[in-house]
Write a structure and sequence with these properties.
3 domains; 7-stranded antiparallel β-sheet; PH-domain like; alpha+beta; about 25% helix; globular; about 325 residues
Length: about 325
């Protein structure tokens, strides 16, 4: 059963602000009240023009010396300071409400499998350098894990990008294929339930891909299906040369699915221009879950191996398996 996550209600507080234009010149500043709501931030100055921002307008959130810096998509920047004892609450509200909004945009209607878990996390980049740490709520969705930190931007790791998952001594170590790593700890009694849900979710996705491939080629050896499924982990497109190294016939069946989905004309034309051994075909759950079902897609690299010929491109097209919709 899905669990509802704890929502941050928003807040209002007194502070000082500074608003700079694209060139860094201060256009407005002074004392004001800040009002944070579900999808917006309003600055209500004692004197001057009211500023209203959608949380979508904020490119990132950074802090230093008890000042909150908010660069905007317009190239302008809003800085909040002199907040007093409500500083951490304000930072937490802006961060968490913005993350909730970004998550809604990112996942559309993907089903939430587990939430309400509190943990501590450390996030390392591919070089082993620490990027972020603190408290967070790790949420498990159909196709990935999302870390919702108390402060800072959310991180989403698709299950298909996980190269290693270790659960021992009440700690999770999650390593992505790019080499990034997340350590989750201090989950208390939620450790075992969390472990079961993430294991079940990853197994379910692997089963879906293997089942789909077996339907395409019922006579295939089980080992071929398993190996092909590794290349086509949920959401990933497999390269022609990799699939043909297992079974040339399976690649032909994948191309037949493109025809069934109504992509044959586009695929045929682009294929004739491409480096054909590098063509990729993938299979994925739709962004609206049960409302859109599954879709098949392809990536075709178009370039010349000669340095004298200009231009590089990658063409992509997708369609639901019943041919009901296309996207380029």
């Amino acid at each position: 059963m899905d669990q509802k996550s704890k929502q941050v209600p928003g807040m209002e507080c007194s502070l000082s602000y500074s608003f700079s234009d694209q060139g860094g010149q201060v256009r407005a500043s002074g004392q004001a009240r800040a009002r944070v709501k579900e999808e917006s931030l309003a600055i209500l100055p004692e004197a001057g023009e009211t500023l209203f921002l959608s949380l979508r307008d904020i490119l990132e959130i950074s802090e230093a010396d008890y000042r909150i810096h908010l660069p905007l998509s317009s190239g302008e920047e809003l800085t909040l300071f002199n907040v007093g004892y409500q500083y951490q609450d304000l930072l937490r509200n802006i961060s968490q409400l913005r993350n909730e909004m970004l998550l809604k945009d990112m996942l559309m209607n993907e089903k939430l499998r587990k939430s309400g878990v509190q943990a501590e996390f450390v996030y390392f980049d591919e070089t082993g350098k620490e990027k972020q740490r603190g408290k967070c709520e790790p949420r498990l969705y159909e196709t990935g894990i999302v870390l919702m930190p108390e402060k800072g931007e959310l991180t989403r790791i698709p299950y298909s990008d996980i190269s290693e998952l270790r659960a021992e001594d009440y700690t999770f170590a999650i390593t992505s294929e790019s080499g990034e790593k997340v350590i989750l700890s201090k989950m208390a009694s939620q450790f075992d339930p969390f472990k079961k849900v993430i294991s079940d979710s990853m197994n379910q996705l692997a089963l879906r891909v293997q089942s789909w491939l077996k339907e395409l080629m019922p006579e295939a050896n089980p080992s071929v299906i398993r190996e092909a499924a590794r290349f086509m982990k949920e959401g990933k497109a497999a390269r022609r040369s990799d699939i043909e190294s297992l079974s040339p016939e399976l690649w032909k069946r994948l191309e037949m699915q493109l025809e069934i989905a109504g992509l044959n004309e586009e695929y045929g034309f682009l294929k004739s221009l491409s480096q054909q051994d590098r063509i990729c075909i993938g299979f994925k759950r739709g962004l609206l879950g049960d409302l859109t079902g599954d879709y098949i897609w392809f990536l075709i690299p178009i370039y010349s191996t000669s340095s004298k010929d200009p231009g590089n491109a990658v063409a992509m097209e997708a369609a639901s398996e019943d041919g009901g919709g296309k996207a380029t």
